[in-house]
Protein backbone atom coordinates (compact mmCIF):
# COMPACT_ATOMS: atom_id res chain seq x y z
CA UNK A 1 0.00 0.00 0.00
CA UNK A 2 1.50 3.35 -1.06
CA UNK A 3 1.48 6.53 0.99
CA UNK A 4 -1.04 7.96 -1.48
CA UNK A 5 -3.35 5.01 -0.85
CA UNK A 6 -2.98 5.53 2.90
CA UNK A 7 -4.10 9.12 2.59
CA UNK A 8 -7.09 8.12 0.47
CA UNK A 9 -8.12 5.80 3.29
CA UNK A 10 -7.73 8.50 5.93
CA UNK A 11 -11.48 9.32 6.23
CA UNK A 12 -12.03 5.92 7.85
CA UNK A 13 -10.26 7.17 10.97
CA UNK A 14 -12.36 8.86 13.62
CA UNK A 15 -9.75 9.30 16.35
CA UNK A 16 -6.54 10.03 14.44
CA UNK A 17 -5.38 11.96 11.40
CA UNK A 18 -2.62 10.79 9.09
CA UNK A 19 -0.42 12.56 6.58
CA UNK A 20 2.80 12.07 4.66
CA UNK A 21 5.24 14.93 5.20
CA UNK A 22 8.84 16.00 4.62
CA UNK A 23 10.52 17.36 1.52
CA UNK A 24 10.76 13.85 0.08
CA UNK A 25 7.31 12.82 1.37
CA UNK A 26 8.88 9.91 3.23
CA UNK A 27 7.72 10.63 6.80
CA UNK A 28 4.47 9.17 8.09
CA UNK A 29 2.67 11.55 10.46
CA UNK A 30 -0.03 10.35 12.84
CA UNK A 31 -1.91 12.90 14.94
CA UNK A 32 -4.06 11.73 17.83
CA UNK A 33 -7.37 13.51 17.37
CA UNK A 34 -9.69 13.45 20.37
CA UNK A 35 -9.22 17.10 21.38
CA UNK A 36 -12.31 17.32 23.61
CA UNK A 37 -10.99 14.38 25.67
CA UNK A 38 -7.36 15.63 25.60
CA UNK A 39 -6.59 12.65 23.34
CA UNK A 40 -7.54 10.10 25.98
CA UNK A 41 -6.47 6.69 24.70
CA UNK A 42 -9.68 4.76 24.16
CA UNK A 43 -9.61 1.35 22.49
CA UNK A 44 -10.97 2.61 19.11
CA UNK A 45 -8.18 5.20 19.00
CA UNK A 46 -5.52 2.57 19.66
CA UNK A 47 -6.97 0.19 17.08
CA UNK A 48 -6.73 2.99 14.52
CA UNK A 49 -3.26 3.99 15.70
CA UNK A 50 -2.05 0.40 15.44
CA UNK A 51 -3.42 0.08 11.91
CA UNK A 52 -1.83 3.36 10.79
CA UNK A 53 1.55 2.40 12.25
CA UNK A 54 1.35 -1.08 10.69
CA UNK A 55 0.45 0.40 7.29
CA UNK A 56 3.26 2.97 7.41
CA UNK A 57 5.66 0.22 8.49
CA UNK A 58 4.73 -1.81 5.41
CA UNK A 59 5.02 1.18 3.04
CA UNK A 60 8.47 1.10 1.43
CA UNK A 61 8.32 4.85 0.71
CA UNK A 62 8.12 5.73 4.42
CA UNK A 63 11.42 6.07 6.31
CA UNK A 64 10.14 6.96 9.78
CA UNK A 65 6.89 7.56 11.65
CA UNK A 66 5.92 10.45 13.92
CA UNK A 67 3.17 10.26 16.52
CA UNK A 68 1.91 13.56 17.92
CA UNK A 69 -1.12 15.19 19.51
CA UNK A 70 -1.98 18.88 19.80
CA UNK A 71 -0.59 21.79 21.80
CA UNK A 72 -2.71 20.99 24.86
CA UNK A 73 -2.12 17.26 25.00
CA UNK A 74 -0.09 14.51 23.41
CA UNK A 75 -2.37 12.14 25.31
CA UNK A 76 -3.67 12.84 28.81
CA UNK A 77 -3.93 9.16 29.66
CA UNK A 78 -6.14 6.16 29.09
CA UNK A 79 -9.90 6.57 28.83
CA UNK A 80 -10.90 6.01 32.49
CA UNK A 81 -14.61 5.87 31.73
CA UNK A 82 -13.96 3.06 29.25
CA UNK A 83 -12.07 0.91 31.75
CA UNK A 84 -13.95 1.83 34.92
CA UNK A 85 -16.06 -1.33 34.96
CA UNK A 86 -13.39 -3.74 33.71
CA UNK A 87 -12.71 -6.84 35.79
CA UNK A 88 -9.64 -9.01 36.23
CA UNK A 89 -11.41 -11.74 34.27
CA UNK A 90 -12.41 -9.49 31.38
CA UNK A 91 -8.93 -7.94 31.18
CA UNK A 92 -7.35 -11.40 31.04
CA UNK A 93 -9.78 -12.96 28.59
CA UNK A 94 -9.82 -10.01 26.20
CA UNK A 95 -6.11 -9.21 26.48
CA UNK A 96 -6.76 -5.63 27.58
CA UNK A 97 -4.27 -3.19 26.01
CA UNK A 98 -3.01 -5.80 23.53
CA UNK A 99 -3.37 -3.26 20.70
CA UNK A 100 -0.38 -1.38 22.12
CA UNK A 101 1.92 -4.13 20.81
CA UNK A 102 1.44 -2.82 17.26
CA UNK A 103 3.58 0.17 18.19
CA UNK A 104 6.39 -1.77 19.87
CA UNK A 105 6.44 -4.30 17.00
CA UNK A 106 7.06 -1.62 14.36
CA UNK A 107 10.36 -2.15 12.55
CA UNK A 108 10.78 1.45 11.46
CA UNK A 109 11.81 4.28 13.80
CA UNK A 110 8.83 5.79 15.63
CA UNK A 111 9.27 9.28 17.06
CA UNK A 112 6.99 10.91 19.63
CA UNK A 113 6.50 14.68 19.28
CA UNK A 114 5.06 15.64 22.67
CA UNK A 115 3.34 18.93 23.39
CA UNK A 116 1.17 19.41 26.46
CA UNK A 117 0.19 16.50 28.67
CA UNK A 118 1.70 13.02 28.29
CA UNK A 119 0.23 11.36 31.34
CA UNK A 120 -0.41 7.73 32.29
CA UNK A 121 -1.00 5.90 29.04
CA UNK A 122 0.16 9.01 27.18
CA UNK A 123 3.55 8.81 28.85
CA UNK A 124 3.64 5.07 28.19
CA UNK A 125 2.81 5.64 24.52
CA UNK A 126 5.66 8.15 24.26
CA UNK A 127 8.02 5.60 25.84
CA UNK A 128 6.89 2.99 23.30
CA UNK A 129 8.44 5.23 20.67
CA UNK A 130 12.14 5.10 19.84
CA UNK A 131 12.85 8.81 20.34
CA UNK A 132 10.95 11.49 22.24
CA UNK A 133 11.12 15.17 21.28
CA UNK A 134 9.16 17.54 23.53
CA UNK A 135 7.76 21.04 23.41
CA UNK A 136 8.90 23.30 26.23
CA UNK A 137 5.49 23.18 27.94
CA UNK A 138 5.15 19.37 27.90
CA UNK A 139 4.27 17.54 31.12
CA UNK A 140 5.01 13.87 31.76
CA UNK A 141 3.75 11.62 34.53
CA UNK A 142 2.32 8.29 35.69
CA UNK A 143 -0.60 9.37 37.91
CA UNK A 144 -2.35 5.98 38.00
CA UNK A 145 -1.62 5.75 41.74
CA UNK A 146 -4.13 8.57 42.25
CA UNK A 147 -7.01 6.40 40.99
CA UNK A 148 -6.09 3.21 42.79
CA UNK A 149 -4.15 1.33 40.13
CA UNK A 150 -0.69 1.16 38.58
CA UNK A 151 0.68 1.74 35.07
CA UNK A 152 -0.25 -1.21 32.87
CA UNK A 153 1.33 -0.48 29.50
CA UNK A 154 5.01 -0.31 30.41
CA UNK A 155 5.22 2.54 32.91
CA UNK A 156 6.77 0.49 35.71
CA UNK A 157 9.11 -1.33 33.33
CA UNK A 158 10.31 1.17 30.73
CA UNK A 159 10.57 4.17 33.05
CA UNK A 160 13.23 2.62 35.36
CA UNK A 161 15.23 1.57 32.33
CA UNK A 162 15.17 5.11 30.95
CA UNK A 163 15.52 7.28 34.08
CA UNK A 164 16.76 4.92 36.81
CA UNK A 165 15.03 3.28 39.76
CA UNK A 166 14.89 6.23 42.16
CA UNK A 167 13.35 8.69 39.70
CA UNK A 168 10.94 6.05 38.38
CA UNK A 169 9.82 5.20 41.90
CA UNK A 170 9.26 8.88 42.69
CA UNK A 171 7.20 9.41 39.54
CA UNK A 172 5.11 6.24 39.91
CA UNK A 173 4.54 6.38 43.69
CA UNK A 174 3.65 10.08 43.91
CA UNK A 175 1.80 10.58 40.66
CA UNK A 176 3.61 13.91 40.32
CA UNK A 177 4.18 15.50 36.92
CA UNK A 178 7.61 16.40 35.52
CA UNK A 179 8.17 19.18 33.00
CA UNK A 180 9.98 18.92 29.69
CA UNK A 181 13.24 20.34 31.01
CA UNK A 182 13.42 17.82 33.85
CA UNK A 183 12.44 15.02 31.47
CA UNK A 184 15.33 15.96 29.21
CA UNK A 185 17.73 16.18 32.16
CA UNK A 186 16.84 12.67 33.35
CA UNK A 187 17.13 11.18 29.84
CA UNK A 188 13.45 10.53 29.14
CA UNK A 189 13.41 13.14 26.35
CA UNK A 190 16.10 13.67 23.71
CA UNK A 191 15.54 17.38 23.03
CA UNK A 192 13.18 20.21 24.00
CA UNK A 193 11.95 22.86 21.55
CA UNK A 194 9.61 25.86 21.54
CA UNK A 195 6.04 24.64 21.16
CA UNK A 196 5.65 26.05 17.64
CA UNK A 197 8.94 24.49 16.47
CA UNK A 198 8.41 20.97 17.82
CA UNK A 199 6.80 19.30 14.82
CA UNK A 200 9.15 21.02 12.36
CA UNK A 201 12.20 19.79 14.27
CA UNK A 202 10.77 16.29 14.63
CA UNK A 203 10.20 16.08 10.89
CA UNK A 204 13.81 17.19 10.34
CA UNK A 205 14.95 14.34 12.58
CA UNK A 206 12.83 11.82 10.68
CA UNK A 207 14.17 13.15 7.37
CA UNK A 208 17.75 12.80 8.61
CA UNK A 209 17.08 9.17 9.53
CA UNK A 210 15.55 8.77 6.06
CA UNK A 211 18.87 9.59 4.37
CA UNK A 212 20.24 6.24 5.53
CA UNK A 213 19.60 2.68 4.40
CA UNK A 214 16.16 1.61 5.69
CA UNK A 215 17.46 -1.94 6.09
CA UNK A 216 20.44 -0.89 8.20
CA UNK A 217 18.30 1.55 10.23
CA UNK A 218 16.00 -1.35 11.12
CA UNK A 219 18.96 -3.50 12.14
CA UNK A 220 20.41 -0.68 14.25
CA UNK A 221 17.06 -0.19 16.00
CA UNK A 222 16.89 -3.91 16.79
CA UNK A 223 20.39 -3.81 18.26
CA UNK A 224 19.75 -0.78 20.50
CA UNK A 225 16.47 -2.28 21.73
CA UNK A 226 18.27 -5.49 22.61
CA UNK A 227 20.23 -3.57 25.24
CA UNK A 228 17.04 -3.40 27.33
CA UNK A 229 16.28 -7.09 26.96
CA UNK A 230 19.53 -8.87 27.85
CA UNK A 231 22.72 -8.77 29.91
CA UNK A 232 25.63 -6.72 28.59
CA UNK A 233 27.47 -9.87 27.50
CA UNK A 234 24.48 -11.21 25.58
CA UNK A 235 23.79 -7.78 24.11
CA UNK A 236 27.35 -7.46 22.85
CA UNK A 237 27.07 -10.86 21.16
CA UNK A 238 23.78 -9.77 19.56
CA UNK A 239 25.34 -6.53 18.36
CA UNK A 240 28.33 -8.35 16.87
CA UNK A 241 26.00 -10.74 15.06
CA UNK A 242 23.98 -7.86 13.58
CA UNK A 243 27.19 -6.00 12.71
CA UNK A 244 28.51 -9.04 10.87
CA UNK A 245 25.12 -9.37 9.20
CA UNK A 246 25.39 -5.92 7.64
CA UNK A 247 28.28 -7.31 5.57
CA UNK A 248 25.78 -9.52 3.77
CA UNK A 249 23.87 -6.47 2.52
CA UNK A 250 24.30 -4.46 -0.66
CA UNK A 251 23.76 -1.23 1.28
CA UNK A 252 26.77 -1.88 3.54
CA UNK A 253 28.95 -2.38 0.47
CA UNK A 254 27.52 0.73 -1.18
CA UNK A 255 27.98 2.83 1.96
CA UNK A 256 31.64 1.94 2.41
CA UNK A 257 32.38 2.20 -1.32
CA UNK A 258 30.78 5.65 -1.46
CA UNK A 259 32.85 6.76 1.55
CA UNK A 260 36.10 5.60 -0.09
CA UNK A 261 35.07 7.19 -3.41
CA UNK A 262 34.15 10.45 -1.63
CA UNK A 263 30.57 10.50 -2.96
CA UNK A 264 27.09 10.25 -1.50
CA UNK A 265 25.79 6.68 -1.13
CA UNK A 266 22.84 5.41 -3.17
CA UNK A 267 21.14 2.98 -0.83
CA UNK A 268 18.69 0.43 -2.28
CA UNK A 269 17.29 -1.08 0.95
CA UNK A 270 18.99 -4.35 0.07
Automatic annotation (TrEMBL):
GO terms for biological process: fatty acid beta-oxidation. InterPro entries: ClpP/crotonase-like_dom_sf, Enoyl-CoA_hyd/isom_CS, Enoyl-CoA_hydra/iso, Enoyl-CoA_hydra_C. Its EC number is 4.2.1.17. Signal peptide: none annotated. The keyword Lyase applies. SUPFAM superfamilies: ClpP/crotonase. It comes from the Eukaryota. PROSITE patterns: ENOYL_COA_HYDRATASE. One of its GO terms (cellular component) is mitochondrion. One of its GO terms (molecular function) is enoyl-CoA hydratase activity. Keywords: Fatty acid metabolism, Lipid metabolism, Lyase. Belongs to the enoyl-CoA hydratase/isomerase family. This is Probable enoyl-CoA hydratase, mitochondrial. It comes from Papilio xuthus.
Amino acid sequence: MSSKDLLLLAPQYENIKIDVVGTKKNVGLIQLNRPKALNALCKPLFVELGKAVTDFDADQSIAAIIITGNEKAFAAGADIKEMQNNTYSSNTKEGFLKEWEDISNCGKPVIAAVNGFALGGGCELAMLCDIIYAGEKAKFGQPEINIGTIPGAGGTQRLPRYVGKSKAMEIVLTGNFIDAQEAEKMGLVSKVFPVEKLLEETIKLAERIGTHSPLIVKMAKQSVNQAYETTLKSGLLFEKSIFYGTFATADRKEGMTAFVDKRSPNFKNE
